[in-house]
Amino acid sequence: MIESLVITLLPVLFLIVLFGGGAVFRRRNIDMDGVAPIGRTVFVISKYAIVILWASAIFQTWGVRLSFFEILNPARSFALLLFISGFLLLFAGRFEMGSSFRIGSPKENTKLKVNGLFRFSRNPMYLGVYTTILASVVYTLNPILLAVGIFVVIVHHRIVTAEEQYLLRAFGEEYKEYSAHVRRYI
Questions:
Q1: Residue 44: what pLDDT?
Q2: Domain containing residue 14
Q3: How far apart are CA 136 and CA 22, in angstroms?
Q4: Is residue 10 a contact partner of residue 83, using CB atoms and an 8 Å limit?
Q5: Fewer CB within 10 Å, N side or C side of the chain?
Q6: CA atoms within 13 A on the CB side of 40
Q7: What is the per-residue pLDDT across 132-148, written as a single tens digit (0 to 9) for each?
Q8: Domain total in the chain
Q9: CATH assignment at residue 92
Q10: What is the average pLDDT score of the chain?
Q11: Cβ neighbours of residue 42 under 8 Å, at least 6 residues apart?
């Protein structure tokens, strides 16, 4: 029961924070929706695919059998640990970004974040997304969801590299120096 609540509440709370933050941003005349750094259709599909993967773990934990295989307790425990860790990265990254957070590249000037988690990873939120995807796939052991997860990771890596080009243009030498000392993911 606790496992089901954790796996359900983490993505739900994150989506509330994400969309609630968007409402707060709009009241402050900040557009949280940035410019898609890659093709908009693929960008949007990949974002919704993340939610589908999270939902699959939720359904699995509430008894909807999505797995083609028996999931052993060590695998479930590992997936739960990954799920929690990934969402901790997502929450921490989102809050540390503050008003610089955008879904996509910003349309206006923002601040380059280099403190907190950003001292260890240039992309802690993407690392969190990848971790929750891996958790969802391990938790369900569903090859179709594995394929969706691979698609999302490939697309999001393309997003990251495109956003890096934006950051280089926007912040120049400051970003170059930062990226020379902090790795892309870990």
A1: 96
A2: 2-181
A3: 26
A4: yes
A5: N
A6: 3
A7: 999 999 999 999 999 99
A8: 1
A9: 1.20.120.1630
A10: 94
A11: 155
Backbone region of residue 141 per phi and psi (left: phi > 0; alpha: psi in -120 to 50; beta: other values):
left
In the numeric block, which tokens belong to residue 74? Answer: 């060590």
Q: Provide the angle, in degrees to the nearest 10, between the axes of the packed helices 40-61 and 2-27.
A: 150
Q: How far apart are CA 86 and CA 131, in angstroms?
A: 5
- Please report the beta strands in the chain, taking only residues with DSSP state E, as ranges in sequence order: none
Tokens at 29, concatenated: 């005349």
Q: What's the half-sphere exposure (Cβ side, CA atoms, 13 Å) at 155?
A: 23
pLDDT tens per residue across span 110-122? 889 999 999 999 9
What tokens appear for 35 in the block?
């410019």
Helix and strand element counts for the chain (H, E): 5, 0
**148, two tokens:** 């969706």
pLDDT for 49-66, tens place per residue?
Answer: 999 999 999 999 999 999
Whether 174 shows a pLDDT value over 90: the answer reads yes
The reported pTM is 0.94
- Residue 186 included in any domain: no
